[in-house]
Amino acid sequence: MIKRNTVQKMKIMEYLMSTKSHPTAEAVYAVVSKDIPTISLSTVYRNLNAMAEDGEILKFEVGNEAHFDADISFHHHVYCKLCKNVFDLHDREIASYITEKANIPNFKVESTNLIFVGKCCDCAPEEEMTQNAQASPEFMMN
Ligand SMILES: [Zn+2]
Ligand SMILES: [Zn+2]
Predict the structure, then answer these.
(1) Relative to the alpha carbon of 22, which ligand is closest?
(2) How many angstroms separate the alpha carbon of residue 42 from the centre of ligand 1?
(3) Which UniProt keywords apply (predicted)?
(4) Which residues are CB-neighbours of 117 under 8 A, at least 6 positions away?
(5) Are residues 65 and 91 in the same domain?
(6) Which of 20, 63, 80, 93 is in the most buried spot, having the most CB atoms within 10 Å?
(7) How many CA atoms lie within 13 A of 16 on its CB side?
(8) Which of 69, 92, 117 is the last residue of a domain?
(9) Domain residues for 120?
(10) Distance from residue 67's CA to the centre of ligand 2 (Å)
């Protein structure tokens, strides 16, 4: 079976691979529609959902919106509730706890959808950041 609209899917993937911003479907549409003016928001939605279902990209929901990520490696996210940015969290201790130590009876964990919600360093007052600077995990800013 020949898949239709492969160019659209390629453009969507190309954009997702180029960004670490974990865009929503609307944000993907805003960029992709510059290259493909005829593409519709619902087409972008359909492609993103199909790609997520096929395991080609990650889809997760936070702040009542679905976000998409071309990085399908085992990692987690931090979400700033003020500027609504999503950042990658590559923390080996959290990852190894989940894959090795977390003991959920009668259940085999394959993936998680772990999102830390709070304020990023651009949004939080400085005293709040220094308060738990010691405990805060490192995460990659864009
Ligand atoms: Zn922020
Ligand atoms: Zn990510």
Answers:
(1) 2
(2) 29
(3) DNA-binding, Repressor, Transcription, Transcription regulation, Zinc
(4) 62, 78, 79, 81
(5) no
(6) 80
(7) 26
(8) 69
(9) 76-131
(10) 9
| Vertex 67 angle, CA 141 and 97, to 5° | 65
* Whether residues 14 and 39 fall in one domain: yes
Q: Is residue 63 part of a domain?
A: yes
Q: Provide φ and ψ at 87, rounded to 5°.
A: -115, 150
Domain-ending residue, one of 69, 95, 111: 69
- Ligand at minimal distance from the CA of 117 is 1
Please report, in tens digits, the pLDDT of each residue of the chain (142 residues total): 555 568 999 999 999 999 999 999 999 999 999 999 999 999 999 999 999 999 999 999 998 999 999 999 889 999 999 999 999 999 888 888 887 877 788 887 777 788 999 999 999 888 787 765 555 455 555 4
State the distance from the centre of ligand 1 to the C-alpha of 34, rounded, in angstroms.
27
Distance 67 CA to ligand 1 centre (A): 16
